[in-house]
Design brief:
single chain; alpha/beta; Rossmann fold; GMP Synthetase, Chain A, domain 3; 2 domains; 11 helices; about 20% strand; binds xanthosine-5'-monophosphate
């Protein structure tokens, strides 16, 4: 039976043996719960939904239907990685929805941060619900709910992302399957590693639901969004090369909506700056900044201004939280 509450005496899953035992137990539980019916999962490629997908693939194979919605605000290479890992390597039943134009068209001219978040959230539910309505015989909805989600929603800190967001005609059709519900984040990672997911997925840094949308402050334009995506990819590549991946809690770039004068090949440029932010935290309530080595900063400035279209200046944000928040919107 699926446990809804974490038992007080449950050991912390922090070894391959404990992770294996958890996986075996969950496979039995999922098989009992689901039988020969289909299960639907919104697969973002984040740690929690990826681990849930891998567990369900082991338990019920093609009865799992994964839906990956590309809203155009994902990081470089993410949709491709989801397809590679789940469709090509794990042979999963994966529906890839290219909703890039749909999201970006809705966001044209929208500069208010809350309205941007709202549009992205609503549109995501609409796209997912449309896919769900197309499918026959699905009785279960799998979710990557984890134990801190339950604790936080009980404490009234944030609403946990369960079926509450789905329209009634969709939500009422499903029974929930939440195989990592009683696990803490580090335990989910330990289980993911044992399930054979790549390290870049298992140890992924936190990434906000509205994605790169909150790192393109103000009204999103496709060219500025591309500058965020390309500079983020360079930052991640250089952090990995310099042994900082997995050591720094979160790092990203932001491209604000103002331009300054520069010079390239003897000609005037008028382009955006790219802001680099790298932070460490335990609880995200208070955040300290990671001070980067001078050589790395110089190299990042060189690469970003040379390789990213529309950028002629690089700035570093060394502001802790408080007074700043982690994200810009
Ligand atoms: P802030 O900006 O509030 O961010 O200091 C704290 C942490 O939360 C992440 N974050 C989000 N995560 N949906 C998410 O799933 C969101 O809308 C969202 N906004 C911020 C942020 O990346 C940081 O790790």
């Amino acid at each position: 039976m699926q446990l809804l509450v974490r038992p007080d005496d449950m050991p912390r899953i922090n070894t391959p043996e404990l992770a294996q035992a958890f996986i075996e137990e969950q496979i039995t539980t999922i098989k009992e719960q689901v039988g020969d019916k289909k299960v639907l999962l919104a697969l973002s490629g984040g740690v929690d939904s990826s681990v849930v997908a891998a567990l369900l693939i082991k338990a019920v194979g093609k009865q799992l239907v994964c839906v990956h919605v590309n809203h155009g605000l994902l990081r470089k290479g993410e949709p491709e990685q989801v397809i590679e890992v789940f469709r090509n390597q794990m042979d999963a039943n994966l529906i890839y929805v290219d909703a890039v134009d749909r999201f970006l068209d809705k966001l044209v001219g929208v500069s208010d941060p809350e309205q941007k978040r709202h549009i992205i959230g609503e549109e995501f539910i609409d796209v997912f619900a449309e896919e769900a309505r197309k499918l026959d015989g699905v009785e279960f909805l799998a979710q990557g709910t984890i134990w801190p989600d339950i604790l936080e929603s009980e404490a009234g800190i944030k609403a946990h992302h369960n079926a509450g967001g789905l329209p009634d005609d969709i939500a009422s059709r499903f029974e929930l399957v939440e195989p990592v519900r009683i696990l803490y984040k580090d335990e989910v990672r330990c289980v993911g590693k044992e399930l054979g997911l790549p390290d870049s997925m298992v140890y992924r840094q936190p990434f906000p639901g509205p994605g790169l949308g909150v790192r393109c402050p103000g009204a999103i334009t496709r060219d500025r969004l591309e500058a965020v995506r390309e500079s983020d990819a360079i930052l991640r590549e250089e952090f990995a090369k310099n042994g900082l991946e997995g050591k720094v809690w979160q790092y990203f770039t932001v491209v604000p909506d103002f331009k300054s004068t520069g010079i390239k090949d003897g000609k005037r440029t008028f382009a955006w700056p790219c802001i680099i932010r790298a932070i460490n935290t335990i609880d995200v309530v208070e955040v300290t900044v990671e001070h980067l080595p001078d050589e790395l900063i110089d190299h990042l400035v060189y690469r970003i201004t040379k390789e990213v279209a529309g950028i002629n200046r690089v700035l570093i944000d060394y502001t802790p939280k408080p007074p700043a928040t982690v994200e810009y919107e």
